[in-house]
Amino acid sequence: MEKSKRKELSYNYVHSHREMGVYRILNIQNGKSFVGSAMNLNGVWNKHKFMLNMGGHMNKEFLAEWMKYGEDGFQYEILELIKPQEDFVLQASDLEKYKKILSDLEKKWFEQLSPYGERGYHKLK
Q1: Number of other residues whose CB lies within 10 A of the CB of residue 118
Q2: 68 against 15, higher pLDDT
């Protein structure tokens, strides 16, 4: 591949949107949910799996059940995607507007799923 073509592909990748939205990691053994939102849904799933598999996840109850049931005991689901308003991201600051949208969507899903106590891995605030 030509150097100019590689450079163009690299530039386009860096300035393209990643999938943004709200996700759930569902324990298919007991129905408990871990819910969150992310600017990069693929990246956050990889992050959770890495932390869980290394035994260093911040949510100890979730970690304990991951260790008990293994990765096959859980299912990653995208609950809602955000459609970007633009095709291309010129600067990181262009993404700031999506943080509020993500926060609002996450609250909506927390209210809908109520992932607390026997239904999830979150604590009521």
Answers
A1: 7
A2: 68
